[in-house]
Amino acid sequence: xxxxDTLRALITGRxxxxxxxxxxxxxxxxxxxxxxxxxxGTGAALPGIPAPATWSRAAAVLxxxxxxxxxxHPNQWALPGGAIDGAESPELAALRELHEExxxxxxxxxxxxxxxxxxxxxxxxxxPVVVWAGAARELVASEDEVASxxxxxxxxxxxxxxxxxxxxxxxxxxxxxxxxGDTWIAAPTAAFLYQFRELCIAxxxxxxxxxEQPLFARK
Length: 219
Prior knowledge:
This protein has helices at residues 5-16, 90-102, 189-201; strands spanning 29-41, 56-66, 77-78, 81-83, 111-114, 118-119, 124-134, 146-153, 164-166, 175-180, 183-186. The chain is α+β, with helices and mostly antiparallel strands. Strands 1, 2, 3, 4, 5, 6, 7 and 8 form an eight-stranded mixed beta sheet that branches. Strands 9-10-11 form a three-stranded antiparallel beta sheet, with helices on one face.
């Protein structure tokens, strides 16, 4: 699956025809994340995902591992993102966080649309913004926030064993995880990836706000 104009038009069309589920939570903090579509490039070697020998134009999703010294969620998989500042829109917040965390500067023309809001157990309502990053060959991880940057092939999220759903004692809803290589990604990041896969690629209307997070991700 190439990161080309055909894929961009497909994803844009499906997001434009999608009625997002926004959440109103006055007691929660607002945040935004960027689900950035990017060329796979030479990839980042992960167990179970071989890196391309040469630069690949295959479609990938930009993910990070959070810095080990962070107080909240150290070393967890994440989409670039953070708290919305004042009257800032989720779109502008997502673009700003992309620049701050991985050194990627994009303008508003890169925005393709939104997915559903997700309320976390840690007190945030997160709005995911889908953006088109292109090749983006020069990425620089923020020392304050990011341990590593990864270009995960989009095909990895189309695996037949995804999503992983686990029963949990304190909820009627399962915990959602997305496998990647020989490991996995937890909700809320996994929820955004799953909804993107279902809606934008598989063309299946899917809601994810009800899925739970594992206990370690609730802090």
